[in-house]
């Protein structure tokens, strides 16, 4: 494994934008996040483990989504082995946001203590046709664009939440010196295209369910999932595609940054490219299944959008093993 030493742009003086002031009860949540941001990462991960289990116990819907998604991808035996890990990791992912969003960028980037595959970034930069970073809901997905922005400009696709206070906090945490946000609409797509034409990087969560009319029903771990096609369309620009995710290290030691090429060149029709991207996401998840956000409702049905053929169905604890559970972690 190669080790790299970097100088972060902005240095230790880099700081966050101030958050707006909100009335009760929103201000209490922001205050809580501010307090949490001062805790060591190891403490946040311990508290996050408790939060993960509390959410699991108190939310039947969350519990059902996590159980069904894990069974589909991992099979019954692997689900039983990985469930406790996945529950705790989900909670860690929630609380570590306080440090990632509200601490200085240089401090956040310094938590990346191991890097694998940085030579892919260097090669793609030399090509000069832009870089398309694809980051699934795996590991600490919030830190990927933050870290990458310390080396070069990056524009990331962003869908604002409904809550105004949460939107302000997220934007304050994400919009850094070289990290630009592109709304998940036509103007945002144009921003992504312009960035690639300038030879810059763009990033997105390719396993995020798109709005109705903006995706295709494609296979994801053996079940139809409404899949975004934007990433597949951006491949047409000739940009280098890099799969990237940040693995949480034990005891709050930081993160291991993984950058990988797709297992095969992404080509074909829009649908074929989007399907291959789904397979690439599956490939990453199988590398560290305990850190995937299994509680995310990946198989939700958007209003006005229905999968062709059989609709998604629930699965039970005795579901047959398939996907990663039956092929030893190879590609689906």
TrEMBL record:
Task: List membrane-spanning regions.
Answer: 41-59
Enzyme Commission numbers on file: 2.3.1.-
Q: Which gene encodes it?
A: htrB_1
Region (Disordered): which ranges?
A: 303-332
> Native species of this protein?
Candidatus Accumulibacter cognatus
What protein does this entry describe?
Lipid A biosynthesis lauroyl acyltransferase
Q: Which residues form a coiled coil?
A: none
Task: Extract one GO BP annotation from the record.
Answer: glycolipid biosynthetic process
Molecular functions per Gene Ontology: acyltransferase activity
Q: Where in the cell is it found?
A: Cell inner membrane
Q: Which InterPro entries match?
A: LipA_acyltrans
Q: Which GO terms describe its cellular component?
A: plasma membrane
Q: Which PANTHER family match?
A: LIPID A BIOSYNTHESIS LAUROYL ACYLTRANSFERASE, PHOSPHATIDYLINOSITOL MANNOSIDE ACYLTRANSFERASE
Q: Does the keyword DNA repair apply?
A: no
Q: Which keywords fit this entry according to its UniProt record?
A: Acyltransferase, Cell inner membrane, Cell membrane, Membrane, Transferase, Transmembrane, Transmembrane helix
